[in-house]
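During the no-cost extension, the postdoctoral fellow (Dr. R.K.) reprocessed legacy sequence entries with the updated structure-token encoder. One reprocessed record is reproduced below for audit purposes.
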Amino acid sequence: MTGAASGIGRTTALAFAREGANVVVADIDHHGNQDTARMIENPGGQALAVSCDVTRSEDVQAALTKTVERFGRMDYAFNNAGAEQQPKASSVSRLDPSGAVQVDAEHPSRNRKVAGLNSTSGPVIK
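Re-encoded structure tokens follow.
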């Protein structure tokens, strides 16, 4: 689950855990990510916190590899992470949200071509 350090990602990770899922929480926010994992593990759930920048395909691949090493497979993917670039006002003549759109629409975790994703046994939710 990307973007699991806070907000919707954390809430969803906790909901999956309450239903009995083993949850991999992946985020660039190390402390928030660790907190989410502890929130899952304290009542007895299984979690793995991995550092992951979804704009870097090697980070996404590493997160998937760690998931399979720990839990044997990945049944679901919840690609919640997003990024927003804040342009300098002096360099933009009009609002340009393309940075956020590009990451949200095209980041590697939304690409089924990430090595190993198709070899898992469960469905992928985008």
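Residues 57-71 form the longest helix (15 residues). The chain has a mean pLDDT of 80. The remaining legacy entries will be reprocessed before the final report is submitted.
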